Amino acid sequence: MRKHYSLRYFTGQAMTGLWRNGVMSVASVAVLMSCLVVLGCFALLLVNINVNLDNVAQLNQIVVYCEYDLDEAAVEEIGSQIEELDYIDSVTHVTKEEALETMREQSGEYEELYSGITEENNPLSDSFEIMYKGTDETEVFDLEAQLRSIEGVRKINSVYQVAKTLDNLKSGIMLVFLWFLIILFVVSIFVIINTIKLAVYSRRNEISVMRYVGATNWFITMPFILEGVLIGIFASLIGFAVETYIYNYVEKMALVDLQMITVLSYGKIAIPLFFGFV
């Protein structure tokens, strides 16, 4: 008897059960697919945030902006004071003319917006790009305090602060990700349980007959277990296809419009994502 009823037989019974409960089967696949896509999006977002955090951490850069009305001598004096500070690795002076030219080059098709700006009405100020040594938080904060104390400094932009902001963002996303995981898991289990209940109810007479003739519990339950497996496989394959389309779209958009953000190539994460979904 056990040799006759092979895995192929049980799989056929599971497919029959899915067909009999078509509406709930489709609903189960759709819910699981949605869960996987949402969780996949959060997971890929976290991966890319980590990549950008690593890139930012490697920069060790602070940009110091001078007051607008400083003359050349005052700007040079600021540069000299910066070079004398602790933790300084290198200092690069960027004039307001160079900054304007850089903005024009980065504007691409909108370069004409800067056509009316000349040296006389340039709204930018001189700045210094500083590369510092070490990544200890205390050292960075100490350096920032010293830079702010220099007369003629208007403001500073620290990549370290950007990294901290991204790190806080990652923590928030992790919290949201955890709650989504719990909610979607409960919803998925609820839908699958109801699908199996309907399948059992529709085949209650058949189950009763099998019990009367001495069928074992595993013989009766195996088709229902395989139904759940098939629902999971179908949902994972569809979810992987949807996730692929979404990620490729975001990757292309980032390459064109968000060039300052690093997005991992899909080829590097496709295989782990596929096996994760399945």
Summarize this, please?
It is built from nine helices and four strands; from the N terminus they run H-H-E-H-E-H-E-H-E-H-H-H-H. The radius of gyration is 30 Å and the shape is elongated.
Overview of the molecule:
The protein is built from 9 helices and 4 strands; from the N terminus they run H-H-E-H-E-H-E-H-E-H-H-H-H. It starts with 6 loop residues before the first helix and ends with a helix. The protein has 278 residues and is of the alpha+beta class. It has a 4-stranded antiparallel β-sheet.
Major sheet: arrangement of strands: 2-3-1-4
- What proportion of the residues form beta strands (DSSP E)? 5-15%
Distance linking N and C termini: 32 Å
Q: Helicity level, as a percent range? A: 55-70%
Rg estimate, integer Å: 30 Å
Give the low-pLDDT segments: none
Number of helices: 9
**How many extended strands?**
4
Give the CA-based shape: elongated
- Average pLDDT level: 77
Oligomeric status: single chain
Structural class: alpha+beta
* H-E string: HHEHEHEHEHHHH
List the helices and strands and how they pair.
Layout lengths: L6 H14 L1 H38 L1 E6 L5 H12 L4 E7 L1 H12 L19 E6 L4 H12 L4 E6 H44 L1 H9 L4 H41 L8 H12 L1
Antiparallel strand pairs: 1-3, 1-4, 2-3
Helix pairs in contact: 1-8, 2-6, 2-8, 8-9
Features of the shown structure:
elongated; 278 residues; four-stranded antiparallel sheet; alpha+beta; 9% strand; single chain; 70% helix
